[in-house]
Amino acid sequence: MGGRKNKRKRAERPTIHPNNKYSDNPPDFALLASLYPSFNSFVSYSRDGRPKIDWTNFNATRELTRVLLLHDHGLNWWIPDGQLCPTVPNRSNYIHWIEDLLSSDVILKTNADGDNVKGFDIGTGANCIYPLLGASLLGWSFVGTDATEVALEWAKKNVKNNPQISELIEIREVLTSQDSNSLKESHNGESGSGESQTDLCWTVGKEGEPLPSYPFDLSSSADKSYYGPPVLLGVVKDGEKFDFCMCNPPFFETLEAAGLNPKTSCGGTPDEMVCPGGEKAFITRIIEDSVLLQQSFRWYTSMVGRKSNLKFLISKLRQVGVSIVKTTEFVQGHTCRWGLAWSFVPPARKIISPCVAQRNNLSFILEGIQRQFSAVDVLQSIESFFCSSGASCKLNTSSFTVDVTASVEHCDVILNNEASEASNGEHVLEMSYHSSHSLPALSNSSFRISVYQQIAGTLLVKGSLQHRDSPIAGAFSSVIQQLEEVLKHQFCREKGT
Ligand SMILES: C[S@@+](CC[C@H](N)C(=O)[O-])C[C@H]1O[C@@H](n2cnc3c(N)ncnc32)[C@H](O)[C@@H]1O
């Protein structure tokens, strides 16, 4: 297959979430320079009169972050020299993606805490950026954790200097003396259901079930396991419940690998950038902890820096029986980061279960289709959805059907984020059509997607697999569920609007 599937063109690649303050108004350096003399000293003007800063100067990038947080968010903020300096528009995208997850009707709110949203920021850093943004933008409360003295000291200062939101944020020390592996073992001992859950693939956990012990050797195929201070287990207190956790993990395995982007200077100390095993090991630990903490969090999320790690982590999540996995792409200039989210809360809408996994006829209803869209638009979107995975498709506007020929691999592409979501939470439907170029796969299966008009604004979409025992039968329901999500996002009005 080589790089075929990665070489698809993206029709559009939104770089900023539509709710992001900066989506229509990028930072205005000239205005900020005129208002803040301390920032003015870092601003120069190119020949065509455009204001710019020297991105390789840490003092300049830190001052930009400071004035953006002050001017646009009313936040007082500072970090000592060399600490990781966050870019405000990029960090805001992660917050808004979580906002999308929380408002999605797939995983309903379980927290008894009314409308208050409670988040958990793993490794908040000296900059404490996520709690500050989440609290000031959306009124969320947070526990922000860290394991280093300097991070804890400055995160606390940054909270204290913002009395308008300081009540919402608790900075919690992760005790480095604690051995996270022994915590894991003692938790296993306590929960001790002893059940081995070997076939939990994509099954849905039920509320009130005993916490399973680690049924899988998650780290067996990882190059290196995480060792170090606890991450969630041992930090989350008994009985605590959160709507989500988030994490910008130490991405790198070594200082050399962390390097420094010569084009920018955002600081970053070894403690912030590096951990044994890198992000793969760190996020694997979050997954392991989530298996034990289950529904203590509605959503578990993390940033992921490398696509190969994202794929590895998604396959781990499939092993441990989460109820749903969501991904998104954060585009930052020329670099890409991914958001990975999962949950153990049973989905409100039935999406994946072993019994439906084997059904060869599956359907769903699209209600509240916006007026400007016709059934043909929906058909074309269905075609594009499958074509973007490399499957071949034939659209028929007379019978209102799309005939698809796809392999297990194509389904994997769909389910492993190749039809990825943009940072605005909507799936990017890739518009390059591959019908004529798709590589012949050895064991292709055929299925038909039919679209039926019900009443005005409502369509029934039905997927029919030609052979019940075809190789893709196991993935069929997940693929149809993914299709449903994409079409709903694209064509249907939000409930209540
Ligand atoms: C890449 S920095 C992220 C800082 C900040 N959240 C941001 O996005 O700029 C990673 C942070 O994780 C912290 N960290 C490392 N291991 C940790 C652990 N086990 N628990 C909590 N924080 C940890 C580091 O000290 C560092 O501050």
What does it look like?
The chain is α/β, with parallel strands linked by helices and 497 residues long. The protein has two domains: 29-176 and 224-343, Rossmann fold, CATH 3.40.50; 361-412 and 443-491, TATA-Binding Protein, CATH 3.30.310.80. The chain has helices at residues 29-35, 37-40, 58-73, 88-103, 129-138, 149-160, 163-166, 180-191, 255-258, 270-273, 278-293, 307-320, 354-357, 375-387, 408-415, 473-491, and strands at residues 43-45, 51-53, 118-122, 141-146, 169-173, 242-247, 297-304, 324-332, 335-343, 361-366, 392-396, 401-406, 445-453, 459-465. The chain starts with 28 loop residues before the first helix and ends in a 6-residue tail after the last helix. The site of S-adenosylmethionine has 23 residues, from helix 5, strand 4 and helix 10.
